[in-house]
Amino acid sequence: VQLVESGGGLVQAGSSTTLSCAASSLNTGAMGWYRQGPGEDRELVALIIGSDKTHYADSVKGRFTISRDIAKRTIYLQMNHLRPEDTAMYYCNADLQQTYYSGTWHYTEGRYWGQGTQVTVAS
To answer: What is the pLDDT confidence band of residue 23, given thresholds at 50, 70 and 90?
Structure first.
């Protein structure tokens, strides 16, 4: 499975932008977005299972929306009210795994990665 991201770039704080990730195959399983800021660990931002089951990091809840167009084999990340701390390289990921234990869902990154797209939020 190949993943190709688009979107991102330099944006102003408070503005919006949308990332896209097109997959080469329909068999991608759960898909999501990770990000890695300067000097930080990579973190899961959002994921989507099927067409409508979603999960978000607390830091982006209410601001970011992940969606999926199955026919186009594409997922999107609509990012609103952007903050300087959202500055990071954003990576599309496919075939994420989910497990349920200790009363909550846990997610593990999938096998397939895009090349990444930079989002820089200027204050």
So the answer is: very high
